[in-house]
Amino acid sequence: MVIKKLLRNPLSMIGLVLLLGFVLIALFAPWIAPTLEEHKNEPYRVPRFGWGSSPSPPTKEHPMGLTQGKYDVFYGIIWGTRTAFQVGLIVTGLSCLLGVLIGSVSAYIGGKFDEVIMRFVDVFMSFPFLIAAIVITAVLGRGLDKVIIALVLFRWTGYARLIRGSVLQVKQDEYIMAARAGGVSHPAILVRHIIPNTIFPVLIQASMNMGSIVVTAATLSFLGLGAPEGYADWGQMISFARNWVLGSPGEPLKYWYTVVWPGAAIVLFVLSWNLIGDAFRDIMDPRIQA
Amino acid sequence: MAAANSKKEVLLEVKDLVKHFPIRQGIIFTKQVGAVQAVDGISFNVHKGETLGLVGESGCGKTTAGRLILRLLEVTSGDIIFDGKSIPNLPKDEMRELRKDIQIIFQDPYGSLNPRMTVGDIVGEPLHIHKIARGKEREKQVRDLLETVGLTAFQARRYPHEFSGGQRQRIGIARALAVNPRLIVCDEPVSALDVSIQAQVINLLEDLQKEFGLTYLFIAHDLSVVKHISDRVAVMYLGKIVELTGKDELYHNPKHPYTQALLSAIPEADPTIKKERILLKGDIPSPINPPSGCRFHTRCPKVMDICRVKEPEFIDSGNEHFVACHLVPAAEENKEQKLA
Q: How far apart are CA A138 and CA A130, in angstroms?
């Protein structure tokens, strides 16, 4: 039913098609952009062609050109899709899991316990997210896994609050009381009755966040806190373009390929998730449901 | 009370039941600034196989009383004794065991069924929890239950939103019946339904009572519905029971002014019958700060000075007709008992 509705809505169709495209690119990366023989064991290392620092324009061999340091843009974009999915899915999955667990248990138990947990959440939320992420990656060191840890640590609170609100509402419903009268244990009530009725806003939020997490991860990479240099990652491709965005005197668009390709990849990826999230929200909204 | 009814077996005994919901203020250092006195010392017995009607206006505490009996809420004080066991003091595992014996049917047929579970899962869940039946056997029992309440077996695969209000209430009844209970608390089971459907559900409840030997505590705000189904009726006002007696006695010889007013408000189907209506002035007072003395004195048409000061006792005025009113004298035997 959900899928049928997704297919009927033209915007969500665009989102789905874009996403499908990215999934295919990620899956078939080894065939689209074959890894060089000498790098067989580290496919995420973007190959360099030459030793100069300035970018070179697209050619037949390098359809998207070479960016600063003669890194192949095409290879970086294709394998960067995998990185984007990895970061997005792992961060969203883990923070969702953590948030739903803590938020729902806290709301279900309620009272002082809930109060303490929610103040804890407030503490996490009071940090400006980007600064907190920068501090964490600076403390833990550079690397994609550290970025993931930082993102999860400061993302679960949103899900926790979201589900807490729904659980507080749903736990007053009579079917919860009916379950208790039937002798259902508290953990079972939470899993069988409460979570299925409160999880949808969280899933919508998660699909929306998939895109923004990739942007944030790219931001961290751009700031030099993300993946190590040469790792296939869209944020890093953009950061390579930093010195070349303005082109050269008289030729403002001379190095367009250094910024347009990675930029487009990020924009389309975020767009696809947002369109799907929007469509999800419309579908799940009970007021729209027939 | 117990002595007079010794010939009938008491299934449920409620003694001085009190439930106050505290009102707290402050964020960190909370202090209790008051309490909603939802139920404030009610006592009654339910005999095996009978239907006890519990009526009163909205907010008088009848639903709270029902939920206390199922221990969906914890009591503030008082005791509830079911079949010799004190429900408020029962350890967790024994309470879970006891839940097989007491079930509840809720008022709202829309809110009381989990929208994301199939009817088969809703009705079958208690069977699974209490290890009564699993797998194929469970499916069979669910089908039987659905047919018992007048639905068809194939509807087990459907979701609650595919049913009408009356059908949903039947699903709620099937769920309550699944564990083969002895007492069912019916919490306004028909007040959310159309009048034409109300009769069907009431008749179903009566048939089930005969078939399975059930005992009902039937909570309602509608005296005509209660009249049809009950053996005895208790009238509640603002957390207290003001009158409790047999159905016929109550309807033909109401002694408490509140009961008289309620009965006079029942519309008569025959327009030629002229009936004096007693109009109660004002609203039901707040249960946070109930009136002193008799709680009904602010609205009572027959109010006396003593009513404002002294709370009337809940006494037998003869013939097991219990009333809490200064106007109603205690039965002779009762007086003697007190003197002795």
A: 12
Strand partners, B232: B52, B246
User: How does pLDDT run across B98-140, given as a tens digit for each residue?
Assistant: 999 999 999 988 889 998 899 999 999 999 998 888 889 999 9
Q: Is the pLDDT of residue B3 over 50?
A: no
Report yes or no: B243 and B324 within 8 Å, Cβ to Cβ.
yes
ipTM score for this prediction = 0.83
What is the domain range of residue A86?
2-34+73-236+261-289
| pLDDT reading at A290 higher than 50 | no
Residue A142 resides in a domain: yes
Helices (H), B105-191: 119-129, 135-148, 165-177
Taking residue A74's Cβ as centre, other Cβ atoms within 10 Å add up to 19
Position A54 in a domain: no
Which of A173, A180, A182 is nearest residue B111 as measured by Cβ atoms? A173
Instruction: Identify whether A147 is part of a domain.
Output: yes
Which CATH number goes with the domain that contains A156?
Answer: 1.10.3720.10
The dihedral built from the CA positions of residue A211, A216, A217 and A222, taken in this order, carries a sign that is: positive
DSSP 8-state secondary structure symbol assigned to residue A44: T
Name residue B67's amino acid.
R
The β-bridge relationship of strands B31-47 and B51-55 is unpaired
For residue A136, count other CB atoms closer than 10 A to its CB: 19
Q: Name the residue in chain A with its Cα closest to that of B179.
A: A182
Question: Least CB-CB distance to B104: which of A181, A188, A196?
Answer: A181
In a domain, A77, yes or no: yes
- Kindly give the residue spans of alpha helices, DSSP state H, lying in A28-72: 29-32
A178·B130 Cβ contact <8 A: no
Tally of domains within chain A: 1
Strand partners, B51: B216
- Contact indicator for A45, A230 with CB cutoff of 8 Å: yes
In Å, how far from its chain's centre is CA A246? 29
